[in-house]
Structures are given as structure tokens and as C-alpha cells.
């Protein structure tokens, strides 16, 4: 294993995902009308076709492939273990009904951890890239004992990064400590609202 010295890079947030597509027009239609992304201005200096979209704090950059579109892999089967982009949802039942109304093929999964459940819906974009919709926030983020630096989490009050020092209720904290094999005093997790930026750190 390669050993990286000096600590991680000074990053702040995820900016965008770039995706090759057979048809920029078809992909814009999908990301705008299925996933709710908004087309935004794209630098005119680019000498290749593409489009930029933005929502949920992240950008989607579409790149028109220069090769024969038929040379791109054609993925028909939805494999939840494949590379994918995941979006948090507030109501999975509504999302599933919308997919049915749009006649979009999907695969449904459920994950259980310590009595908590996460529902997942997987679909493909027009080029076979997999998209997940989930309620993953049902599972608390529990740092491993080897973690030594702060981790930024999404939250809902504003877009600034703030240091949160909020412990979950005693019963939940005890449950998390048992699940992660860490002493209770080592767990300090943010419990901010969705859409806000927060941080947690292991406290020794």
C-alpha cells in the first residue's frame, strides 16, 4: 500500500461530476426533467460540445463523446454494485411512484444496520451511468478509530462550514458506541439539519 505523507489535500467540497454522453441533448433532458438539475452557463472557450447543470450543491458536467457513440459500453442491467452517484431523498415512496409514472426501469434494495433501515432505488441515465436515490441519512456517520481529521457533513441551515459539537441522545450514543466498538467519550457526531454544512471529529 502506498503511504501518503503530510495529511490529506486541503479540500472543501465536491464541485462537479463529469460524464461522457452519446447525446448532450438527451442527457440534459434526463438530468433536468428527471433529477431536477438546472442548466447553467458554460465557458464559451471550450472547443467541444457539452453542457453544465447544477443543483443540490453539486454540478453535472456533460461531455459529448468524440468517438463513435456505439463504442461506449451499453449497460442494460442495473447492478447496484456498479459505479454510481447517489442522492438523498425525503420521501422514497414518492420517488418510486414518480419513476413508475415516468416508466423508468429501476432496482430496489434495502439495507439494515442495528435496527435502522436504508431504502435504495437505482436507475440508469441515458448512457447507462447509474444513479441512486436513497434515505441514507437514516444511518448516522460513525468515524472509525483510525480517523484523525475532521469530516464535513451536509446540513440545512446555510452553506457555510461550521464546527458542530452536538452529541446524540444518550441512548442513541450508547448504541453507536457499541456498534463501532468505540468508548462513548470518543463519539461526537453532528446532528444538523439537511442541507447545512457541519463537521464532526473524533474526540480522544
Describe this structure in words.
It is a single chain. By secondary structure, the chain is α+β, with helices and mostly antiparallel strands. The protein has three helices and ten strands. Strands 1-4-3-2 form a four-stranded mixed sheet, with helices on one face.
Which properties best describe this structure?
204 residues, alpha+beta, 4-stranded mixed sheet, 3 helices, 10 strands, disordered C terminus
Please outline what is shown here.
The protein has 204 residues and is of the alpha+beta class. The protein contains three helices and ten strands; from the N terminus they run βαββββαββββαβ.
Could you give the topology of this structure?
Elements: E1 16-21, H1 24-33, E2 38-40, E3 50-55, E4 58-64, E5 84-88, H2 92-101, E6 107-113, E7 116-124, E8 130-134, E9 151-153, H3 170-180, E10 198-200
Parallel strand pairs: 1-4, 5-8
Antiparallel strand pairs: 2-3, 3-4, 6-7, 7-8, 9-10
Q: How many helix segments?
A: 3
Rg calc: 20 Å
Low-confidence blocks of residues? 156-169, 179-204
Sheet with most strands: strand arrangement: 1-4-3-2
Q: Which band does the percent of strand residues land in?
A: 25-35%
Q: Give the proportion of residues in helices.
A: 10-25%
Distance between the termini: 27 Å
Describe the main β-sheet briefly.
4 strands, mixed
Number of strands: 10
What gross morphology would you assign? globular
Mean pLDDT: 79
The SS-based structural class is: alpha+beta
